[in-house]
Give the backbone structure.
Amino acid sequence: MTKFSFDITIEAETQKDAEMKLKSAAALMQKLRPNEIARLAEIVKNDPVKTALAKKYLGL
């Protein structure tokens, strides 16, 4: 698979939080297909009920 590089900015309280967000996003990108990531992002942005249920299920 081809690799692409990007310069990005991450909003976070601390550098440690930003690094955690980036590592977590990288893991999701490795394990999920692009359409799955897009659907997950759509739900998180637009469906607070499903997002709350997912967080509860994950123990967050």
